[in-house]
Amino acid sequence: MKNFMQAALTEIAYQPQRLLEILRKIQQQYQHIPPQAIDYLADELKIPITQIVAVAEFYSFFHLTPQGHYQILLSDSITDRMLGKADLTTYLEQKLQLKLGQVRADGLVSLNNTSCTGLCDQGPAALINGYALPNLSYASIDAITALIEAQKPISEWPPELFSVADQICKVDLLLSAPIEKSTGLYAMFAKGLTASLAEIDLSDLRGRGGAGFKTAQKWQFCAEETSQQRYVVCNADEGEPGTFKDRVLLHRYADQVFEGMTICAAIIGAQQGFLYLRGEYLYLYQQLNAVLQQRRDEGLLGDNIVNQGLAFDIEIRLGAGAYICGEESALIESLEGKPGIPRNRPPYPVSCGYLNQPTVVNNVETFLAAAAIVVNGGAWFANVGTEKSAGSKILSISGDCEKPGIYEYPFGTSIAQILNDCGAKNVLGVQIGGPSGCFISNQEFDRQIAFEDLATGGSFIVFNQQRKILDIVQNFTDFFAHESCGFCTPCRVGTSLLKKQLDKIANGHGSAGDVVELDAISQLLKNYSHCGLGQTAANPVLTTLQRYPELYQQQLKNISYEPGFDLDAALETARQLAHRNDAAAHLQQVEE
Questions:
Q1: Based on the domain organization, do 445 and 474 belong to the same domain?
Q2: Does one domain contain both 188 and 283?
């Protein structure tokens, strides 16, 4: 173990901020993080044992107890369930003689759930030792279990078991004409850095991760900081169930994304960039590193980019299974080798980010668009979309539709048009923006994809009339309870209470008072949580309770109430109570 650890530490240059990287290597080598390895790391990296344990406990891909030589993680997203994941799980358990959540007695294999693998268009899906297994079927499970029992190295498994398709179904402004390699850099130097930033400003490009902050303004703020060291970070940790567009963009258009990062670096004065790649996309890691090396070989990264004296390089850092790291400050904490707990803001990353230095964090689609804007001009982009939402939006469409995959639309496109294009029929509703977004009913399909109407990071899940609303809400609520980082009480306790309260109602054991309390807990989460996860965790409950109150009432026990009892009035009272300062008093009054 000492020899292995020394080699691994040498590879990361003994940098404590690369703790996740070395823990991934240890996990792969020993199927867990042994105590001896933790002690050795603490001594060599000069960090407390408690910090290493905290990191190992925080990320779902790390384990302090031994796992199987083959570690199978089944995606438990709502889309996987809709595609028959439950029956396939039972079949897999029978084939392996192993129950979900267990390690087999011989240590050969372990089986667990994971929240989402980013393969919602190709489910049911799983990961085995981190590598994607899309489109699971009884036949593929037969093949997989036979290979496991034969103890065949994964590197020798048939490639078709791991074949992930891009499934680009509709292209528009960006995907119809990707820029050629290096043209963004030459265009930037021809125009000048100030003029290039002005083009991005003119384009009115806003962040495509969901928050929608104006990109040029973020870059300008960072450039104006007095620090000598700045960083560029590409957020490729798209953990929102139903979102997989960044996976495709990185596979198909990586050069353009890296070009956008390099343009940003030149404008803000950064010399180092990071691509934070979600751990579920391990299969992209080698390919992306190869793209980076080719760019270095061609003078598009390094000390003298396109002979203009620009020094900038990009390093890929892998996540380890934590949805919260999609939040930019949590991502920065993770980059620094810490648990991904969101920071208090201000200060914002543009002034105090990675290693407390000014840092720009944008997502994959934003950098892709920025590179194209520098080549084609700001007006080219601004002339598409709506008055308040310029350009196009790339959507990840999955669920009950004939053609799941990647679709690009100008902002302002109606939901009805999108549903028609993807072959969705007999639709009950659509979840826009993933579980943290908004569920819309089939009475709202005239609404539009736009920041001023339905803003989204890209997730678009379709549900037909055969689906049950409460099943959907339960899955999403379970997801948030599992993914809460535990930092603040409203989210740590509130998501758990919300899950229990919803389960009580969904299982037919609730009363009208329980619906009132469900709403009150939702409002407390929304108003008092530390970060966006907690603030949006109740959205599945709130958006469906608003649209389908009768479905919740139908699940209630047949209890007699005093004459004149008004559930709507009780819900409104709960909402008012949830805006007061004393959370304990809210819950007590709601219970009364």
A1: no
A2: yes
